[in-house]
Design a protein that fits this description.
This protein is of the alpha+beta class. It has helices at residues 6-16, 101-114, 175-189, 195-201; strands spanning 21-24, 30-33, 36-38, 44-47, 57-60, 68-75, 118-130, 133-143, 149-159, 162-171. The strands form 2 sheets. An 8-stranded antiparallel β-sheet has the order 1-4-5-6-10-9-8-7, with helices on both faces. Strands 2-3 form a two-stranded antiparallel ribbon. The termini are far apart.
């Protein structure tokens, strides 16, 4: 399997000035956007900008474009989940606060298709906690343009008429299963403000 070199990507990113890359402390609770706090569990490389592809941030262990945890937070009605280079906004399916969980799963699959991935399949939609609110999980598979089979796990919730999603993707062979236990802990570490504290803040 051809692996992208993380140090080389970091150098290119620095030279291009298009992203901000930094180490993510594994033990420090981190705000990933929209008041969502998670505990990374282990050290990651984190980025925003071009590498995040519309996410508020993206984390990787082995290299951006290989295994990634992307955080899509605070998506409001009328906005797409992902902002995709060279794809017009009008060509992207957008979020609606009236969407049902299965429609959000389909929205995610359509967005990955627009990113250039093929054979996107989703299944296993089920309710799970998203911090103190009810969220949903689903699984997915897809192929890269080079034919590499990828697997993914998504956790999302709709709060305050907005969509928040954590999306983990990695090659099906070796990488996905190796890091999934860490990602499971990230999913269960999600913490969001409760409704009473939000009202008090307002």
């Amino acid at each position: 399997m051809k692996m992208r070199c993380l140090p080389a990507l970091l150098v290119c990113a620095a030279l291009g000035g298009c992203v901000s890359v930094k180490a993510v402390d594994g033990m420090a609770e981190t705000n990933v956007g929209d008041d969502i706090m998670v505990t990374p569990q282990i050290a990651w490389a984190g980025a925003n900008g071009v590498l995040a592809r519309g996410a508020s941030s993206v984390w990787t262990i082995d290299g951006f474009g290989l295994n990634e945890v992307r955080f899509f937070t605070g998506i409001v009605a009328g906005d797409p989940v992902m902002r995709i280079p060279n794809v017009d906004r009008k060509d992207l399916t957008v979020y609606s606060a009236m969407m049902l969980p299965d429609e959000i799963m389909e929205l995610t699959a359509a967005s990955l298709g627009k990113e250039g991935f093929g054979q996107v399949r989703t299944d296993g939609l089920r309710p799970v906690p998203f911090g103190s609110v009810t969220g949903f999980r689903f699984d997915l598979t897809f192929t890269t343009q080079d034919g590499l089979l990828m697997k993914g796990a998504a956790l999302f919730a709709q709060r305050r008429n907005k969509l928040d999603m954590i999306l983990y993707t990695a090659p099906a062979e070796y990488y996905f299963d190796r890091s999934m236990p860490v990602v499971e802990k990230i999913f269960t570490s999600v913490r969001v403000p409760d409704a009473s504290s939000m009202r008090a803040a307002n």
